[in-house]
Amino acid sequence: QVQLVESGGGLVQAGGSLRLSCAVSGRTLSRYNVGWFRQAPGKEREFVASISWSDDSTHYANSVKGRFTISRDTAENTVYLQMNSLKPEDTAVYYCAAGNGSDNYWGQGTQVTVSS
């Protein structure tokens, strides 16, 4: 089992920044990808960014490229999502997820609200 706990959400004005954290526990993550997804009201959950625990490679949705940065702290087993130049359309519940192709785990989510 893998447990994921998100934190760092909140209310911010457009153009501002937030950093989300995802504390991961339960097992080693050497073969996992850890990522962030988001779900806005009335919309489907969508991919935001991911990072490979084995080689640190990253992937981003086109909508956040150049504004968001995903990173990890191996010692702390924590994944971060630095969000800059936030837009009202970034408003959503942000979920941390970990998967290895067969097992997928989700956190409870953290609300991010960007006011215009």
Folded structure, characterized:
With 116 residues, the chain is mainly beta. The chain is 0% helix and 54% strand. It is built from no helices and eleven strands. The strands form two sheets. Strands 2, 4, 5, 6, 9, 10 and 11 form a seven-stranded mixed β-sheet that branches. Strands 1-3-8-7 form a four-stranded antiparallel β-sheet, with no helix packed on it. Strand 5 and strand 6 (58-60) form a beta hairpin. It is globular, with a radius of gyration of 13 Å. The mean pLDDT is 95.
Give a nutshell description of this structure.
The protein is mostly beta strands and 116 residues long. Helix content is 0%, strand content 54%.
Secondary-structure blueprint:
Elements (H helix, E strand, L loop, with lengths): L2 E5 L2 E4 L4 E8 L7 E7 L6 E7 L5 E3 L7 E6 L4 E6 L8 E8 L4 E3 L3 E6 L1
Parallel strand pairs: 2-11
Antiparallel strand pairs: 1-3, 3-8, 4-5, 4-9, 5-6, 7-8, 9-10, 9-11
